[in-house]
């Protein structure tokens, strides 16, 4: 029961007691009728309930306002977090956004990269995909790429030296071939001169032995330079027998090359070093996972065992400009369609 209702009932009780104590209660001052009592009680209750409803409405509005304020604060906080996240994101630069020096280096390298013949934009994407040439944000690391340009220059210098060595060897062979007829003529003339005898019989002087054919030779230092420039490996010169020229242990930083085979040309020995280096590049591209590398190469070349890896190694060596000597037996060859996989391995990516 409300406070106002209690007061109204107390007044009614007091009014009834007064009426009962008077004997001559037949006056015009009659007690209120029941309907009036209810009306008074209802009037008091209505006022209280209206006041209560107003207070509750004010409280609801206050709470709603507080909720809105909290929502607004949360939204502002989320917006600040999003702005901070956006500030932490570093965009990958387009080629046209690079500074002039870096753009010039990349353009220069795209025309000199061993085994690459595409345009500069495609070359830039290949560089971005090479983890060894980008920074922590995924953009090109200028210092790392400058070192890569140095490697390209070293490869060019090595190839120039090889061409000069091959030209010198050809010139030497030509001189030897030109001298051979003169030696033969002198031998024939010597045969016509009668040799002195003690018995009166004539004997011809024995013909001199023919000059030995010039043997092809190679420089170990030049082959070591190929291994160092292509994959950073060192060379161990060993005797691998009559049929093996090179050997690479998966994950090693060195290779074995047969330095005791006779008649090997510089061109072919450099190819051997590049082929063994290709296995090191396979190791890098597949993060050391030999089974994954072997399965993928067999899938590409339709082979089994280690034959896929060997075909890919030949493709890589050829793509880098190191081909086997024409006509020399051995090698695995680069099947049609193997060049794309070779380029992926060279760039450090799985094909």
Automatic annotation (TrEMBL):
<feature type="compositionally biased region" description="Acidic residues">
    <location>
        <begin position="42"/>
        <end position="86"/>
    </location>
</feature>
<feature type="compositionally biased region" description="Low complexity">
    <location>
        <begin position="166"/>
        <end position="206"/>
    </location>
</feature>
<keyword id="KW-0732">Signal</keyword>
<feature type="region of interest" description="Disordered">
    <location>
        <begin position="163"/>
        <end position="220"/>
    </location>
</feature>
<feature type="compositionally biased region" description="Low complexity">
    <location>
        <begin position="20"/>
        <end position="35"/>
    </location>
</feature>
<feature type="region of interest" description="Disordered">
    <location>
        <begin position="20"/>
        <end position="86"/>
    </location>
</feature>
<protein>
    <submittedName>
        <fullName>Uncharacterized protein</fullName>
    </submittedName>
</protein>
<feature type="signal peptide">
    <location>
        <begin position="1"/>
        <end position="25"/>
    </location>
</feature>
